[in-house]
Amino acid sequence: MFSHVKELQYNAKPERPDPVYAKKLQEILGGQYGEMTVMMQYLFQGWNCKAEGKYKDMILDIGTEEIAHVEMIATMIAQLLDGAPAHDQEQGAKDPAVEAVLGGMNPQHVIVNGLGAQPNDASGYPWNARYTIASGNLLADFRANLNAESQGRLQVVRLYEMTTDPGVRDMLSFLIARDKMHQNQWMAAIEELVKSQGAVVPSTFNPEFEKQEVAYSFMNFSEGEESSTGRWVNGKALDGVGTFNYVQNPGAGQVPFLKVPPNYTHGTPPTNGVNPMQ
Amino acid sequence: MFSHVKELQYNAKPERPDPVYAKKLQEILGGQYGEMTVMMQYLFQGWNCKAEGKYKDMILDIGTEEIAHVEMIATMIAQLLDGAPAHDQEQGAKDPAVEAVLGGMNPQHVIVNGLGAQPNDASGYPWNARYTIASGNLLADFRANLNAESQGRLQVVRLYEMTTDPGVRDMLSFLIARDKMHQNQWMAAIEELVKSQGAVVPSTFNPEFEKQEVAYSFMNFSEGEESSTGRWVNGKALDGVGTFNYVQNPGAGQVPFLKVPPNYTHGTPPTNGVNPMQ
Amino acid sequence: MFSHVKELQYNAKPERPDPVYAKKLQEILGGQYGEMTVMMQYLFQGWNCKAEGKYKDMILDIGTEEIAHVEMIATMIAQLLDGAPAHDQEQGAKDPAVEAVLGGMNPQHVIVNGLGAQPNDASGYPWNARYTIASGNLLADFRANLNAESQGRLQVVRLYEMTTDPGVRDMLSFLIARDKMHQNQWMAAIEELVKSQGAVVPSTFNPEFEKQEVAYSFMNFSEGEESSTGRWVNGKALDGVGTFNYVQNPGAGQVPFLKVPPNYTHGTPPTNGVNPMQ
Amino acid sequence: MFSHVKELQYNAKPERPDPVYAKKLQEILGGQYGEMTVMMQYLFQGWNCKAEGKYKDMILDIGTEEIAHVEMIATMIAQLLDGAPAHDQEQGAKDPAVEAVLGGMNPQHVIVNGLGAQPNDASGYPWNARYTIASGNLLADFRANLNAESQGRLQVVRLYEMTTDPGVRDMLSFLIARDKMHQNQWMAAIEELVKSQGAVVPSTFNPEFEKQEVAYSFMNFSEGEESSTGRWVNGKALDGVGTFNYVQNPGAGQVPFLKVPPNYTHGTPPTNGVNPMQ
Amino acid sequence: MFSHVKELQYNAKPERPDPVYAKKLQEILGGQYGEMTVMMQYLFQGWNCKAEGKYKDMILDIGTEEIAHVEMIATMIAQLLDGAPAHDQEQGAKDPAVEAVLGGMNPQHVIVNGLGAQPNDASGYPWNARYTIASGNLLADFRANLNAESQGRLQVVRLYEMTTDPGVRDMLSFLIARDKMHQNQWMAAIEELVKSQGAVVPSTFNPEFEKQEVAYSFMNFSEGEESSTGRWVNGKALDGVGTFNYVQNPGAGQVPFLKVPPNYTHGTPPTNGVNPMQ
Amino acid sequence: MFSHVKELQYNAKPERPDPVYAKKLQEILGGQYGEMTVMMQYLFQGWNCKAEGKYKDMILDIGTEEIAHVEMIATMIAQLLDGAPAHDQEQGAKDPAVEAVLGGMNPQHVIVNGLGAQPNDASGYPWNARYTIASGNLLADFRANLNAESQGRLQVVRLYEMTTDPGVRDMLSFLIARDKMHQNQWMAAIEELVKSQGAVVPSTFNPEFEKQEVAYSFMNFSEGEESSTGRWVNGKALDGVGTFNYVQNPGAGQVPFLKVPPNYTHGTPPTNGVNPMQ
């Protein structure tokens, strides 16, 4: 169960409106790696969590924080849209500066949302739940979370570079710091799980049943062997068990063979020159 | 540029058809973390790669391998669908076993694909490109890749448990081994990048411009403090720079305030009892 | 800003697992009119709200409650999935009852979510943000909300009929009551707004600029005139301004005419018998 | 069965081309609340209608009219795109006015559609069927319809403000009037149904089986009680049965508890420090 | 402008309900190649048509017919859903036949649509506008139409094989005949256009500006040369201009080279061992 | 199984960056008829192919070539994005030319992809698998392929007109030639199949079971008879079997009748003035 207080988690007040930037800022609200993604991902991971209580509590703490991040960015966008030049100018007296703003805006911000934020990304594409994962395996999911916070912080940093508004930058500097913490947090939680379970997901599959011969081999599927010089082909594998090796010319398996399909599928008939029906 | 050989990378031949299992197997072909995802993700990361040559080559090696994994699973599905009971049975003589198969199949396998594989997941939902990321930052993307291989191997292992067919299990045991290698590979590549860049993405943002006060704080947004006992609140942060701390009652920022919208948006008018138009 | 307590808003405990029903219950979690829809719709309407404070507070109260409804249903689904028969049975010893369960389940509940809830509907289709609206006009949006609560309660009632599990029914009886309240709530809020603004959205458009001749006419576009006997063609219009009338044979406007497209679009060339290029 | 006449329902002829506006106008053609939505929603409601004949006839009358609205807007867009500046200008001689037009256009109007309309919204997002509902309960669906006409008219009015072209405004003034009629029409039909069925959807669920204690309570889930001053917490509920009350501190239900998942799901193993496999 | 008559174009009455088949039949209603696709595709092609009047008239004739096909199939599905076993059975007394039906049904047919048709495919995936094309080039579009009618008839034929209900088969036999006519119709229209324009789309591009060296070459990108024996590598090309040839080892072009990205993108920094920020 | 060489299939090097054009070029990379579509469509058709070996080999040859086309366009886009003006300019000193570029760019090219290509179309809409078909019937699928190459070449030609950059035009002239070859190729393969199977898909359905009366009739569903003058209503049908005829006033079938739905669906109750519950 949740409750709401009227204060934002931090400040979200631009110095001046900027409807073109509002369109861009949508990316970290409703985009693939925006705050809606981490909010819903963490909440579902928390609600589905079957592991120790400290994990469930931790995941729901951060999930609850992310709702507040969505709130801050939505609030910021609504203010950036203030005074958007939505009216048409007279033919022959068009101001290129105004036209450029109109060209760079998302017209749905006016038509659909009346100068409010929308749960979409910077292309106007709606947020969808396939951006999230709750797999029931925390090590797998914490890697998803570390990735989401890494992509997310990268995008916030890029958006920081794209504005000079002190109010916007103030809010972004807060999000950039929180995303650093959240990267550290998931790295810490991963470290803890790897210690007890090992580094490969899932740790519980019996290795006898996997094809051991190819479990530590880097396979070269291209001309040139630059790929043979990295850590991923030299030394002990990161799971602490196997040793990397490099396969220059990987072998092959079966040649596939598919049966002729049954008549009721009306697939391509044998092409022996006889028209089957006429 | 690419070329094709007729052999599969490994074997893909079931002992007997199983159209219900064919539906399930679609998840690792066209699902969120199926082989199409890693194939397209790695290819785009490789084509966009602006870093050292060994990374581009390595990424395209594995991307090229993943095309072969898609090929194997598609081939397997087409064979699992052989002899699917697509015909209706006479009313009054329905065989429950046949009906159960019909209920568990994806009817599109017959109607749309004529007993062939489709680029969809186990719910029939089509693969889409938002499953992938190529951000231009390799550390961020390698975390995406490690996550994809972790979720992917977890799903393959679950599918292994859901069949007893030796041919299917043989192919899956190959994929399970490759996914272990690929987890190890991305862990190794991450280790290499973290050594030179540090652990936080992006490493190039000037920390003076981020809100340092909250950059290492775990914030408790719920009743109960189980979340205070993990590695993520104790000791040095994983980036080797800051130190974790726990904030029991996180502070708050501004109360948001939005201006009345301009007339041309026709938003809610002031509700002072006067009907504005009539 | 939000905070979380560990108690659910109400009970969510089934008497026994039922993985087939878990699939169905997804509809009111992640479907078009599920709890995620009202949760996100109300939160965005609240965050974007530029009207009087009591509206913003009211909308965020109910938006915050809806997060708790998502939590309850997710929790219920995770329990309904307990003990799902995911293992394959031996060929020749298949139990029809087990097979029927397998056929009726969503296989992603095992493969993707490890027996947890997913943010999707009963077909496995992911929730997306186009299910929601925050238009900046509260009367319009409250009608969206009343519709959502009406469709939502209808679906919950149908799901109530589809189970006999006392624990599931207990939770649903709570949601059914809340959805009744929420329908009443939006009707009350609509009544209040209609009193001050009038019943037509938006109320602020100058009626002189609309085509008055057709503003109260029901137009008959079909054979048969059963449609002439309803309230919608008899008496005063519901906005209290015009009077309904019935148009048996609606008139028509222009015949459309489109110019030949410019060459650079390479549309269909004039078909005068001359092959334009060869 | 349907038939077509060559006249549009009304005029659809702009005074001059305006490809930037053409992009915006797509919203009311193929957007969430565009004419395709009401067209398909009404047609499916009509085809599925199991109630009295006058409802089926009425719904199909308006559904048939909406096809003509789609036709008018598509025709308008095709004309607005005439003469779009699709050609590239020489480097160094770029005209800012032309560039602004190019920036504000949807490039797919040229590349994909050869200066024709597309069944998408103002962001280029394709129309999809989840925008519609046909629930089998007319009161629920008429509320969906009233919402659609309210959101739709709001969007048309905003688009009216965004152009000064007399031909475009002429067509929009027709649509604005029809949308007023359609709001009135659905309000009238709702009034009729509420009289016979009551105001809560569905009316046929036995109230004994719902949790009466919370069926008329407004629950306060936030700091501050501005929400206690509206019609929704004062007086008789709008269904004419209960009485509203305000709950300042809503109670809570169970603390959720989930079982450890079975081994075959390979979820997170107990974290007791023992690596389970190696 | 359109009008509606109450008769269907043909009969649509099943002998008995069959809710499992109703799910399958959705494919040709709201699927990729269902009737909604051809309906919307032809209507948009007709509305956008800038060619001779006979084409516009012909396209809108068939587009209008397709609305009637959607109507017939929707009506059929609503009847097939009659009496669907939606109620839960008592634990311990489950009838396998009923369970199989429940497993094979789309639960949304009850929960969302109250036993009515939905605008979705056989997987419950909603129809979307990207299934259609109106390119402004009739030869291109008529090929899209011929494909749609070919895929569509194939699916209807497969569905014919999947039922023995005489009423369903009667309706399908009508659709199968119409789809044959429509294939013939588009072939005839293509023949006409190819005569005047040539066979390659678009015919208006100056061949001097295309890379003539590769305009008639089949390129072998795989081991094995079975592909060298078809019509596509032997003789005159179908456009009547060039001559096919077979390239056993296709040459290659540039090796790609991408510049290091600018700092403001925060891409991967040079990996020279120096951590750039710390 | 596949392998990669470092050379592109042809050149892909622009003379200068043009981030606005990069957005447009996305259409033929990740759009409905972009190279990803033909790549995935041909690969799945090839993997599922159950016909003669020469078809499988031919389809996989061209599918493999298309991967190289995706690679070329992605590489081109990454270079067109070089030096994109992502930084904000100081208020009051905005350069209209820079603003126009910013307005015409896809902001995700910076924020999400760090100046790399994305698997989306010119509106930023992600590629999805419903753009492809592999039906199991080669004649149907080759028509899909001919359509895809026709739409694709049309789009490439339009993009050729929209740039003057010699490097971009060089690459496009290659693709335009290949798309001509591929149209010729599919026409040739279709000719071959039609010779053996006949022209109607599927050829294997017994014509006795289709409604012969309407199998060669063009039906006029609109005022005006311009549609009676084309090839499609005059002479022998293209399948060489029937003869076209024109039906001026097509007849009609049943009037649909739907039963009152069962109580458990809680649809609209009989509207006899009695409120059913209260």
UniProtKB/TrEMBL annotation, chains A, B, C, D, E, F:
<feature type="binding site">
    <location>
        <position position="66"/>
    </location>
    <ligand>
        <name>Mn(2+) 2</name>
    </ligand>
</feature>
<feature type="binding site">
    <location>
        <position position="224"/>
    </location>
    <ligand>
        <name>Ca(2+)</name>
    </ligand>
</feature>
<dbReference type="GO" id="GO:0046872">
    <property type="term" value="F:metal ion binding"/>
</dbReference>
<feature type="binding site">
    <location>
        <position position="182"/>
    </location>
    <ligand>
        <name>Mn(2+) 1</name>
    </ligand>
</feature>
<dbReference type="InterPro" id="IPR009078">
    <property type="entry name" value="Ferritin-like_SF"/>
</dbReference>
<feature type="binding site">
    <location>
        <position position="149"/>
    </location>
    <ligand>
        <name>Mn(2+) 1</name>
    </ligand>
</feature>
<feature type="binding site">
    <location>
        <position position="69"/>
    </location>
    <ligand>
        <name>Mn(2+) 1</name>
    </ligand>
</feature>
<dbReference type="InterPro" id="IPR012347">
    <property type="entry name" value="Ferritin-like"/>
</dbReference>
<keyword id="KW-0479">Metal-binding</keyword>
<dbReference type="Pfam" id="PF05067">
    <property type="entry name" value="Mn_catalase"/>
</dbReference>
<feature type="binding site">
    <location>
        <position position="35"/>
    </location>
    <ligand>
        <name>Mn(2+) 1</name>
    </ligand>
</feature>
<feature type="binding site">
    <location>
        <position position="61"/>
    </location>
    <ligand>
        <name>Ca(2+)</name>
    </ligand>
</feature>
<keyword id="KW-0106">Calcium</keyword>
<feature type="binding site">
    <location>
        <position position="222"/>
    </location>
    <ligand>
        <name>Ca(2+)</name>
    </ligand>
</feature>
<feature type="binding site">
    <location>
        <position position="57"/>
    </location>
    <ligand>
        <name>Ca(2+)</name>
    </ligand>
</feature>
<feature type="binding site">
    <location>
        <position position="220"/>
    </location>
    <ligand>
        <name>Ca(2+)</name>
    </ligand>
</feature>
<dbReference type="InterPro" id="IPR027407">
    <property type="entry name" value="Mn_catalase_C"/>
</dbReference>
<protein>
    <submittedName>
        <fullName>Manganese catalase</fullName>
    </submittedName>
</protein>
<dbReference type="InterPro" id="IPR007760">
    <property type="entry name" value="Mn_catalase"/>
</dbReference>
<keyword id="KW-0464">Manganese</keyword>
<comment type="similarity">
    <text>Belongs to the manganese catalase family.</text>
</comment>
<dbReference type="InterPro" id="IPR039377">
    <property type="entry name" value="Mn_catalase_dom"/>
</dbReference>
